[in-house]
Amino acid sequence: MNNTTAIAAFLAAIDAGADDVTERLALQLTPDAEPDLLALLAAPDADRRWWGARALALVGGTAAIPAVAQQLADVDPAIRAAALLALAHLHQRHPDAVTPYLDRAAERLQDEDGMVRQVAADALAQCGDDAVPVLARILFQQTHEGARTRAAGALRKLATMKAAGVLYALLNDSNHLVRAYAYEGLDDMGLLETVLVMPQ
User: Fold this and answer.
1) I need a labelling partner for 85 at 20 to 30 A (CA). Which of 32, 63, 108, 115 fits?
2) CATH at residue 150
């Protein structure tokens, strides 16, 4: 199936509301489809925007990253969530290009929609140690306790030594949920009794 035919079939499935078929067709797309998928991000139709982000998660290159990041401000919470997950997937292939956008992704930890807030935490955790400085800034420089709690939860999921360095500093945090995530994360890693020497 050439690119033109593949995109036509993909769009037809979106417009038909056939999600299973659309997902199967998305998995068959190639990087050659990127220009058409980028155009979908600007579509008036929310379904087309959502599937544009989903497909770019699968085949997008570095050129897709700024456009996907713009979708973090979409009026539709489902599309904001799709953009977060797309950035996490793109980070697997292009970590250096995605990392500068992780602060913008972290802003969604304060999103008005609960699903988006949770997806933001999950997406940041999927970005590994590149997300640790971003999550640390949320925890140590912000006062929004919901965002701080979700940032601590993301660090717990990360379960790396870099994340542990931040979790140690949270064991006496004023937020009991942040403290709980720090305790549980370090305990799960077998590090609760370990004394880390933090870099100055």
Assistant:
1) 32
2) 1.25.10.10
